[in-house]
Task: structure prediction
Amino acid sequence: MEHGWDRAIVTGAAGFIGRHMVRFLRNQGIETLGVDRAATSVHTLAAHTSAYTSARGVPVDAPPVDAVVDLAVQGALAPYLERGTAIFHLAGSANVGASVRTPIPDFRENVFPTLHVLEAARQGACPVLFSSSGSVYDAEAKLPFRERSPIRPSSPYGAAKAAGEAYCFAYYRSYGVDARVARLFSVFGPGMGHFAIRDFCERLQDRPDTLTIRGDGGQTRDYLYVEDAVRALYRVLRGGEPGGVYNVAEGRGRTILSVAEAVATAMGPPVATVRADGKRCTSALYRMEADTDKLTDLGFRPLVSFEEGIARTVSRLREQHSR
Result:
């Protein structure tokens, strides 16, 4: 089902996925306003139209943020909304470890902003895409995780995402807000934060002959290159169902050992020796793999293979390392 909108707002536009989302939308010719609470590049709103026209092909390291908006403040987004505007709500903390250490700030950073975005969407009659996470699923649920699999978060971060989803469903059912949920799994690519792939690359820069990973190497994650991820988010808001939930992933679980080996191959030659230290993995979600049939039914197919995505990511990280 196609739904009409010709303008977009991206929250969290200075973040990893947000930067790519803004760039993708602008490359589609869609007038896009990037907002973030801590902008590194701010245009005046008066110059927005020329900014979005000239931003096609904007470098990934130049976050296209047009306005500083603190979503923790109720009503902060309302002045930027008008009918025909879609909201890609990508803002929020994505640090699982920090959520475990300090759950209250994590709640404030993730749940209140989502509620405020939904309220703004209700007032402005705007569709909303909420970026949730595969971490909402029950670690003991059968693989692959389907959208109807049990929800039982293993971390405060996952709990905050589940709460955001619940508010999306409530606003859809109570007020008719066109809210949709995208459960992102492991998104990677140039500009990513300090997660496993980047960590492997940086460690191999310092010691190119060997790479030791923590755990037994059997932990699995479902990876999707960031350019494909933003295409999927766009597809969900263009063609998905109001009130719907969609897994966003490749649909294939990969062991952390195989991921490390792929990074080592991209860094070579010579290819480093990769081994696991054999220590017990402390992650509650030991295995993650998504069923992506619903996303596939929308016509989505990944365009960048995992290996090509790793090669691009490694190339970019090497370039940054050499500066």
About this structure: The longest strand covers residues 31-36. The chain has a mean pLDDT of 90.
